[in-house]
Design goal:
Length: 191
C-alpha cells in the first residue's frame, strides 16, 4: 500500500486533483479539511476549538490532527490501495509523526507538491469563496493562510526531499495538464 501526500498552498488545486487521482488509481481521499469540518459539524468540544482556529486561518495543533489521522489509518479496509493525504501534514513535526505512523503499519508516503503562483492562488480562492460560500475564502484570511503556509508548511518539502520521496508539480495550469504530470509519476510508483 502506497500513500500520496498532496501538498501545496491553499488554492493550488489539491481538492480538484485528488478527485482525478482517486478516479484513476482507486485511492481513498483523506481531506483533513473535510475531517475537520465534520468534527466542527458534530458540535463536539474539539469541533468548537477547531472552528475557532480555522475561522481565523490558523492551523489545528499537531496532537489533535495526529489523533484524528491515527484513527483513520487504523480503520482502513484491508483491500485499500492507498490514501491521498490532502492537507496533512502541514508542519515538519506532523510529517515526522506521519512517517512514524505509516512505518508502524509497514507503509510509506510520497509527496506530490503542487506549486502555483500567488496571484493564481488568490484568484482561485476568491472565486471559490464567491461560488462555494466558504467564509474562509476572503482576501484577509487567504493572505493569513498563505503566510502560515510559507512559514510552517512549505518546509515539509525539504523533509520529503531528504527522504527521496518528493516530486514538484506545476499547478499554474489547468487541472488536466497538471494531472498529466502526476500521472507519469504515479504510473512509475504504482508498478
Amino acid at each position: 500500500m502506497l500513500h500520496i501526500i498532496l501538498g501545496g498552498a491553499p488554492g493550488s488545486g489539491k481538492g480538484t486533483l485528488s478527485e482525478i487521482i482517486v478516479n484513476k488509481y482507486g485511492l481513498q481521499h483523506l481531506s483533513t479539511g473535510d475531517v475537520l469540518r465534520a468534527e466542527i459539524a458534530s458540535g463536539s468540544p474539539l469541533g468548537k476549538e477547531i472552528d475557532a482556529l480555522i475561522s481565523k486561518g490558523n492551523l489545528v495543533p499537531d496532537q489533535q490532527m495526529i489523533q484524528l489521522l491515527e484513527s483513520y489509518l487504523d480503520n482502513l479496509s484491508p483491500d485499500c490501495k492507498g490514501v491521498i493525504f490532502d492537507g496533512f501534514p502541514r508542519t515538519v513535526e506532523q510529517a515526522r509523526a506521519l512517517t512514524i505512523m505509516l512505518a508502524k503499519r509497514h507503509m510509506e508516503a510520497y509527496m506530490l507538491d503542487l506549486y502555483a503562483e500567488e496571484d493564481v492562488i488568490m484568484a482561485r480562492l476568491i472565486h471559490r469563496g464567491k461560488t462555494s460560500g466558504r467564509a474562509d475564502d476572503n482576501y484577509d484570511t487567504i493572505k493569513n493562510r498563505l503566510r502560515i503556509y510559507n512559514e510552517m508548511t512549505k518546509p515539509i518539502s525539504d523533509y520529503y526531499l531528504k527522504l527521496h520521496r518528493y516530486f514538484m508539480i506545476n499547478s499554474n495550469i489547468n487541472p488536466e495538464c497538471t494531472f498529466s504530470q502526476i500521472d507519469v509519476i504515479l504510473s512509475g510508483l504504482y508498478k
